[in-house]
Write a structure and sequence with these properties.
The protein is α+β, with helices and mostly antiparallel strands. The protein folds into 3 domains: 91 residues, OB fold (Dihydrolipoamide Acetyltransferase, E2P) (Beta Barrel); 83 residues, no CATH class; 227 residues, Chloramphenicol acetyltransferase-like domain (Chloramphenicol Acetyltransferase), CATH 3.30.559. Helices cover 29% and strands 24% of the residues. The protein is built from 11 helices and 21 strands. A 6-stranded mixed β-sheet has the order 12-21-20-19-15-18, covered by helices on one side. A 4-stranded antiparallel β-sheet has the order 1-8-6-3, with no helix packed on it. Strand 13 and strand 14 form a beta hairpin. The longest helix is centred in the middle third of the chain and has 16 residues.
Length: 466
Amino acid sequence: MAKILDMPKLSPTMEEGVLAIWHKKEGDVVGVDDLLAEVETDKATMEFRSFDKGAILKILVAPGATVKLGQPVAIIGEPGEDVSAILGAIAASGPAAAPAKEAPRAAPVSEEAPKTLAPPPAQPTAAQAAVQPQKPRAPKDALSFLTRTEQLDDDTLVSPVNGAKALASPFVRSRAREMGVDLGTIAGTGKHGRVVPEDLAQTREITVSNAQPGTAGTTQALALAQTRLREPKLVPLSPMRRTIAKRLVQSKQTVPHFYLQIDVRAEALVSLRESINAELAREKPKGDSAPKKISVNDLLVKAVATALVRVPECNAQFSDEGLLYHQRVDISVAVAVPDGLVTPVVRDADKKSVVHIAEEVRDLAARARQKKLKPEEMSDGTFSISNLGMFGIDQFSAVINPPEGAILAVGQVREEPVVENGVVTPGKRLALTLSCDHRVIDGAVGASFLAELRALIEHPMRVLTG
């Protein structure tokens, strides 16, 4: 018996998805757990696998379409089975079955009733004409059309120069007045001859090309040409971008942020990284794999995890029942992807070596850019790190990733002069900004965490020894 395949929930926060590609076509026979399609969710590109076996009798959604949870996407059943009844039921229950709203129509005229025309309006008598308000006459100044146009209604104008009528929106009328253009002299290309912004732009181009060099008109025409209207390019929101927008608004509206910023010495941190990478380079890699390397960010993930163990009040989140103090240290690492930002999680970062963290972060970041992360790899972090140092950013403030209680924003390592014992010497500095949920973390607690983190960064061997 034929069955309808609905769009399943492929991630915990998924509300809809974009059906990116079908791996099966109508007529193909599939089994349980066979790959049917790939779906772009708010987190990643997920595999949509079959829960039944049979033949694909009808595909209901084209690739690239946005599909709500529970929306029918295909019909599966025995080969050759009639699905017309199911298609009819889907059509009757879907939005297409709802009658479209039509504009109100005029009451029908009875065929039996005689058709009559309204009598023409009576011409006013001389006495009536004497008391009726007169329309203002066109100014005698031949250049007055540059600043004045007589309005008949919201969309219709009359040229004070030649009396020609022009249809135009209030926006176009305003732009025409700024340009000093008489709309009655323009042949509109819009519906019913309406003058549209593109017609004004064309007028500006003609004005510029016809202006005589060295005249005031040339300067004005060039200035108008520089303000040419260009239509913006509309890019539909991807599921990921829509979720990012929703969560950021939720974070800034419901989480009371406050920020703490410190500038730490980073010479020892950079030196330790170089020493570890030199040691790793001496190890012969297996096969064709690249030699292992660690980054400053890998050392910071380990340092933050160690600091959270020592200041557990920052490894917490707010709930309606009370404050939740986590018994694990799972660091969410922000990774930029084409559609926005994802935060894969390094589990138990306090218990892993820096090299292990480096390998894991590199793998998570690569699969994040390929949209191959699993939902559980991007959820339930306890603290976030966002590093924009590789983009040359010195310092910034990050938005908290709910329900976590804090996020650390990391800038680039800067080469700057440092005063030490009254002597100016070359140095390296690193700006760190902690964004805190004030419902969870007070200023003194956040300051204690940063003090601990500063000590670990400026004496990084403590990071390796715990």
